[in-house]
Each structure stands twice: as C-alpha cells, then as structure tokens.
C-alpha cells in the first residue's frame, strides 16, 4: 500500500462498505500504519482508505494509543466549541495548516454498537482533543474533504 499525494481522488466521497470488506481494508491499513510509525520520526495517528486510493468508507484513528477502526462512520453530535490547532496530513506531506475542529464529537459506525466519543467534554481537560481532531480529519477524508476545507482564514474576525 502506498499513500497518494495531493490527488483529486481525495476530494471524492467514499462508498459505504459491508463489515467484512471494511475489516479487511482496515487490517491492511493498520499494517501500513504500524510499519510507517516504526520507520518515521513523526508518527501518523490516523488514516483513511481513500488516502490509498481505496473507495471505501474506512478509517483508523489512534484512541488511547490503540487503533480504533471506523467503518462507515457518521458524526452524530459535536461540541459547539471549536479550537484552532496546527495539523498535518500524510497526503499533503509538505503542508501544516491551522485548522478549526470541534472540541469533541460523537460518532456512529457499522462496526460498533452505540456511539463512540472522541475528545474532551467541557468539564474535562483538553487532553483528548487530539483524538477528536484526528477522528474529524479522517472522517472528513471519507467525505471527500481535506484539512484545506477547515483551515483558519485570515479574513475571519
């Protein structure tokens, strides 16, 4: 598997997949992520299937430093509070952008019963904000959006 770089396919919404196909794709993605993180100083914390040119709504997010597979994920709830942080992307390796993300999100997906919470609730510290950012980043990829679509704009006041 190879990450595609700055490719128009990243702007295409991915197709939903069944559980078996999703798990097969996720396994290959996890193997890539593991190998990538062993070889590189800057670690990857998430991947989306379309970053490999695979038209499938499958992503991996590190949650509590463990791989968390999302098959056909949908954000079903989110905080009104957004925070601006610097982000990078394996598909745009030479770019770092200031990006707005929700402090927390709640996600429903095919391979989990109930919803999954990423981030920090207002009464908590911001320690888990990175997990929320990563989940939003990868789910955005699956919807044909990149971090360019969420970047801070100097004209915003």
Could you explain the architecture of this structure?
This protein is of the alpha+beta class and 157 residues long. 22% of the residues lie in helices and 31% in strands. It is built from two helices and eight strands, in the order αββββββββα. It has a three-stranded antiparallel β-sheet with strand order 1-2-3, sandwiched between helices. The protein has a three-stranded antiparallel β-sheet with strand order 4-7-8. The longest helix has 21 residues.
Question: What brief labels describe this structure?
Answer:
single chain, 157 residues, alpha+beta, three-stranded antiparallel β-sheet, 22% helix, globular
What's this model, at a glance?
With 157 residues, this protein is α+β, with helices and mostly antiparallel strands.
Approximate strand percentage: 25-35%
Strand arrangement across the biggest beta sheet:
1-2-3
Helix content: 10-25%
Q: Helix- and strand-based class?
A: alpha+beta
What form results from the Cα inertia axes? globular
User: What is the helix/strand order?
Assistant: HEEEEEEEEH
In whole angstroms, the N-to-C terminal distance is 42 Å
Q: What do the pLDDT scores average to? A: 90
Largest sheet report:
3 strands, antiparallel
Secondary structure tally: strands:
8
Gyration radius, rounded? 15 Å
- Tally the helices: 2
Uncertain runs are none
Layout of helices and strands, plus pairs?
Elements: H1 19-39, E1 46-48, E2 58-63, E3 66-71, E4 74-78, E5 82-89, E6 92-102, E7 104-108, E8 115-119, H2 129-142
